[in-house]
Amino acid sequence: MKQADFYILPCTDQEGKFDFLGKLLDRILAGGHQIYLYCNDQYSAEQTSQALWQYRDSSFLANALSSEQLSAPITIGWPEQSASHTDVLINYSDTIPTAAENFQRVVEIVIQQPEVLELSRKRYKDYQQQGFKIKHNDMRKGQQR
Length: 145
Known about the structure:
This protein is α/β, with parallel strands linked by helices. The protein contains 3 helices and 7 strands; from the N terminus they run E-H-E-H-E-E-E-E-H-E. The longest helix is centred in the N-terminal third of the chain and has 17 residues, at about 15-30. The protein has helices spanning about 15-30, 40-55, 115-130; strands at about 5-10, 35-40, 65, 75, 90, 105-110, 135-140. It is about 30% helix and about 25% strand. It is globular, with a radius of gyration of 14 Å. About 30% of the residues are buried. The chain has one domain (about 5-140): 3-Layer(aba) Sandwich (Rossmann fold).
C-alpha cells in the first residue's frame, strides 16, 4: 500500500524546514532508497540543489536536477519534469505532483505557518482520497509550544 508520511515540525521558518529536510534525506539515503525531491518551480529546485551541495561544512548531499539527466541518489524536479524512479517522493512544494500516486512513499514536511498548515490539510485529504495510508510524525512532541 502507498504511504504518505507527514512530518509536523515545531518551527515556523524555511530554515528550520530545510535543516529537517537535510536530516531526513540523510536517513532515507542510509536506508538505500532513491529520492525524488519535488519543488514548486525550476528556480526553487536550483536553489535547493545548491543548498544541499553545501548542506554542512563537513558534508554535502549529492543531487542532480532532473533536467540534467545525471545519476544521483537525490533527483530534484519541478512540474515540467518527471522522475526516473518511483521509490520515495519528498514533496517540497505547495501542491501534490501528478505522479505522486506512482511512488511507494510520499513525504510531506509541515511547518507552523497558517497558509502552510491550510495547504497541508488539503493535501492530507487528497492523499486519503487517492488511497494512501497516512502516517503522522509529530516532531513537536516534547517541545514547548
